[in-house]
Design brief:
Layout lengths: L1 H8 L1 H19 L3 H14 L4 H13 L3 H14 L7 H10 L3 H14 L3 H17 L3 H10 L11 H16 L3 H14 L6 H7 L34
Helix pairs in contact: 1-2, 2-3, 2-4, 3-4, 4-5, 5-6, 6-7, 6-8, 7-8, 8-9, 8-10, 9-10, 10-11, 11-12
Length: 238
């Protein structure tokens, strides 16, 4: 971070700007997005060459619901960060919020073509499925996740698996498939009862069915089609 800013603004000013950016990162991590916005806005004005400052400013805009500003800055990041595409899911979610369904689909195809790491790909898939659901295409949204294996029961799921289960459960419930929604919310609660409102969502679906017999040490759960949303996307700052 210091080297990037030093290259753009000189060693002395770069170190000072790096301190400001570190302050902004801490504010962002504490969900103080307006403070992050103010600091990074100043940094971007002074050192527009700093990808880290531009990215963090775009993320602060996203968290504040300033979709157009977020799109402007995160598009610049996506164009400059090579094949990684870590912020493409966030960009997709901004366009989703504005109802730009065609653009969401375009960015999803771009993300897939970059072959990103698993977490980034899952977040993009969740946003794409959520956008389909926004358009009333619940069956298609569920299918996108099911085909990717998002409903598989796992002994040690990662965070991305839990988010997929949660979103898919939400979509099944919206589609009227309460048994499958219940199965998935049970899976979420079994591993992380504090994830979003998963416990309340499960309770709202009514009494739990009698547990099925254990098979080979694993909970017997029907493999469900998976569906996902975007609000849980993990953001990073450089």
């Amino acid at each position: 971070m210091v080297e990037e800013l030093a290259g753009a603004a000189g060693r002395e000013r770069g170190e000072r700007f790096a301190d400001q950016l570190a302050t902004a990162v801490r504010s962002y991590q504490r969900d103080r997005y307006e403070e992050t916005f103010r600091v990074t806005r100043d940094l971007v004005a002074r050192v527009p060459e700093s990808l880290a400052a531009v990215e963090l400013h775009g993320l602060a805009c996203y968290r504040m619901g300033r979709w157009q500003l977020a799109i402007r800055h995160l598009t610049a990041v996506a164009e400059r960060d090579g094949v990684e595409g870590a912020q493409l899911p966030v960009l997709m979610d901004c366009h989703r919020a504005l109802g730009h369904h065609h653009r969401v689909a375009e960015l999803w195809e771009e993300l897939r073509s970059r072959s990103p790491d698993a977490d980034v790909l899952v977040e993009g898939r969740l946003v794409f499925a959520a956008d389909l659901a926004d358009r009333g295409q619940l069956t298609d949204a569920i299918s996108v996740l099911v085909r990717a294996g998002a409903a598989r029961a796992l002994r040690r799921p990662a965070g991305r698996h839990l988010r997929q289960w949660y979103v898919l459960a939400d979509l099944y419930e919206r589609a009227g498939d309460v048994p499958r929604a219940r199965d998935l919310f049970e899976m979420v609660v079994a591993h992380d009862p504090e994830l979003a409102d998963s416990e309340a969502r499960l309770a709202a679906l009514g009494p739990l069915r009698q547990a099925m017999p254990d098979r080979g040490g694993q909970r017997a759960t029907t493999t469900l089609g998976e569906l996902a949303g975007s609000s849980a996307t993990r953001r990073r700052s450089r």
